[in-house]
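seq as requested:
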Amino acid sequence: DLAILDPSLYFFEVFKDLWNKNGGFFDGSYIKQNREDLSKVHLYTHFSRPLSELIRDVNKYSLNLMARNLMLTVIKEKNDIRPTEDMVNLYIQTWLKEKGLLHKGLFIDNGAGLSRKIQISTNQLLLILQNIYNDPFMPEMIASFPIASIDGTLKNKMKRTKFSRNGHFKTGSLKNVVGIAGFFLSDTKEMKSFVFIMNHEEAKNAQPFIKDLIDLTFIN
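struct tokens:
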């Protein structure tokens, strides 16, 4: 990972710019102090929107920063500690174990999944999808996935397919890696889950094959 600016300096510059653009006046300067040296004064408490709304934004538009922060918030709420991303994999492993799901060999180092260190199999993803489908909050979770050809990262994609408008899928890609997982209602009105991962230098050209594969599953 490469950070060009110090995070605190970056926040200062962005805050100053937004403040001035919205009619404010800002003549302060940037001073960095150790956290321990600062007197803690409670300035404001912000209450977020419901989780069901947040995950809709995160999943439909692949908001990686929000996903990472959400994962850290979940860890904090569960364990009442100051969370770091070093804790993410253990938390995920523990959660999967409690659910009785296969977790051997799995490694997740942040909440967004945007990492080359991550290891997960299609079987593990399929088990997670099945767990989602059998959960009381299944409607909220599936509704957070982009709808094929309708919205989010899949808007205007997958239009000329048999499953257009009938599938909720989460996609992801890195160089030489492509993945898709989700649910669709088949032509026989049967809800099916679908998982595909490709690690290959030609992964960027896999989209036509993925569409054909889902089409084939859709009619069978």
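The chain has a mean pLDDT of 91.
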